[in-house]
Amino acid sequence: MTRTFGPLLEAARIQSEINRLFDNLLDLGGQGKQAGAWIPNADIVETEDSLLVKVELPGVEASRLSVSVLGGNLILQGEKLRPEPGGPARFHVAERAYGRFRRVIGLSVPVNTHRAEAELQDGLLRIRFPKVPNRRGEEVPIEVGLP
Predict the structure, then answer these.
(1) What's the average model confidence in pLDDT over 103-123?
(2) pTM given for the model
(3) pLDDT-based confidence at 25, cuts 50/70/90?
(4) Strand order in the sheet with 99-106
(5) What phi-psi label fits residue 14: left (phi over 0), alpha (psi between -120 and 50 degrees) or beta?
(6) Is the pLDDT of residue 17 over 80?
(7) Contact at 8 Å (CB) between 113 and 50?
């Protein structure tokens, strides 16, 4: 049986693209050296007990990557260096993105940022945040004792 999300997935994709557009416009709005030349793509998956963020960072070295959380936002900053062709060679086509990047991703559910786990492997950054249990809005039973 194939499970499709239909319009909900499309609405989430459109919202993500709008958020990326505004993040990019804010970066271009005078943050100087923090502005990014490109914005990496991301997937965010929520499970019962965690929030998993996957970000495509092909060619980015861990030493040139900064990952932090501030005010409910995951902030990724770094730089992907352009390789030199070497010798008398020259580029005929250069379509891949290089340079500095900055991506701000809103964490939509309460998570424990102190227990986050991050791994960069094969150009994919995986960050797992454990969700905070008993967040507001959930029913929490309270035992009533007799005096």
Answers:
(1) 93
(2) 0.68
(3) low
(4) 65-70, 73-80, 99-106
(5) alpha
(6) no
(7) no
3-state secondary structure of 10: helix
CB distance 128 to 112 below 8 Å: no
Binning the chain into helix, strand and coil, the percentages to the nearest 5 are 20, 35, 45
Would you say domain 6-84+97-130 falls under CATH 3.20.20.80?
Answer: no
Q: Where are the domains of the chain?
A: 6-84+97-130
Structure tokens at 19: 């958020």
What is the distance between the alpha carbons of residues 138 and 140, in angstroms, rounded to a whole number?
A: 6
Render pLDDT for 42-67 as a digit per residue (tens, 0 to 9): 999 999 999 999 999 999 999 999 99
